[in-house]
Amino acid sequence: MPAPMPTLSVRNLRTWFHTRAGIVRAVDDVSFDVHPGEIVGLVGESGSGKSITGFSVLGLIDPPGRIDSGQVLFKGTDLATLSREQLRQLRGNRIAMVFQDPMMTLNPVFRIETQMVETIRSHERCSHKAAWARSRDALAAVGIPSPEERLKAYPHQLSGGMRQRVAIAIAILHKPDLIIADEPTTALDVTIQAQILAEMQKLCADTGTAMVWVSHDLAVIAGLADRVCVMYAGRIVESGPTDDILDRPRHPYTVGLIGSVPSNARTGPRLYQIPGMAPSPLSLPAGCAFHPRCGHATDRCRAEQPAIETDGARAYRCFHPRPGDDS
Questions:
Q1: How far apart are CA 14 and CA 56, in angstroms?
Q2: What is d(CA 4, CA 213) in angstroms, rounded to the nearest whole number?
Q3: How far, in Å, CA of 313 to CA of 168, rounded?
Q4: For residue 150, how far is the Cα from the chain centroid?
Q5: I want to staple 28 with a disulfide (CB 3.0 to 4.6 A). Which of 108, 156, 220, 234 is the partner?
Q6: In this structure, are residues 141 and 169 in contact, taking their beta carbons and an 8 Å threshold?
Q7: Distance between CA 83 and CA 192 in Å, rounded?
Q8: Are the CB atoms for 57 and 180 separated by under 8 Å?
Q9: Over the stretch 110-134, which tens digit does the pLDDT of each residue have?
Q10: Is 236 in contact with 230 (CB distance < 8 Å)?
Q11: CB 106 within 8 A of CB 95
Q12: Quick one: pLDDT at residue 327?
């Protein structure tokens, strides 16, 4: 049988910012797929291109940035070929995004009830009463107490964590085919975070919603994502099933990220940290962008950009990968 069509297929995406100082290669030759019901995690340090990748999928790149090349295919349709009105019909309906800052979703001058009900009724025929009930149930699903009362509130009357939960509730109102989540649980306490992660996993399993979860928190990704794409300097340097990546990382950067996570290991040794700083996307070093921080770098790493190597379900960009189980 032929493989099912991915809900989202990103192919050789390049999103560059053309500034007076030069070209900022924020996303450079990024490719990945997300299948129905699958959760793919994008991880990496700040500035690695994770959020810009998510914004590029929805066409939310403002000048001087633009998608210079590549494709973003949603159920086989290249989103770059759609009109502004066609994109508007998809956003918030079939494709939803949860921003890191909830005030990018919520309008401060309208009640939560108005914003949620209008979100539903702008995409489908539905009575106000039915839309209100769906809004109430969505708030309850993300752990908001007394949802009927919260519907009457304005955004400024809610805490930051509560506003973020409202933004997540709005994203799941239509049970979309694809959700792009840009570090949506960063401002939440661990109890509510666990509740929302469980709700997201249930949504994907029950409805076939595909999800891209952008995060720097490997602990969240470990418990949530089916596959992981590790980004560095605008490129995916390693990808594969979550358990494989976390248990047997191949790329030195992935090894460093995992080693930097605090754990319950014995006290005494200092926590590992990757030396140096991530390079500016305005002036990336020649060759492998990670070589100035890598203890395994050779002259070849400093001169050549590694191509993508595949090993079953795994892929990585490195001339000197960490040995796998078969080595």
A1: 9
A2: 21
A3: 31
A4: 28
A5: 234
A6: yes
A7: 38
A8: yes
A9: 999 999 999 999 888 889 999 999 9
A10: yes
A11: no
A12: 41
The pair of structure tokens assigned to 196 is 């929302």
Q: Using CB atoms within 10 Å of the CB of residue 83, give its burial: 0 to 12 exposed, 13 to 18 middle, 19+ buried.
A: exposed
Cα–Cα distance, 290 to 302 (Å, whole number): 9
Tokens of 151: 């519907």
Residue carrying structure tokens 């340090």: 45
Q: What parts of the chain have a pLDDT lower than 50?
A: 326-327
In the structure encoding, which two tokens stand for residue 234, read together? 């605008």
The length of the chain in residues reads 327
One-letter identity of residue 307: A
Q: How far apart are alpha carbons 266 and 284 in whole angstroms?
A: 38
CA-based R_g, the chain, Å: 21
Give the fold, CATH level 3, of 1-88+208-261+272-327: Rossmann fold (3.40.50)
Place of tokens 């992935």: 254
Is there a contact between 221 and 215 (Cβ–Cβ < 8 Å)? yes
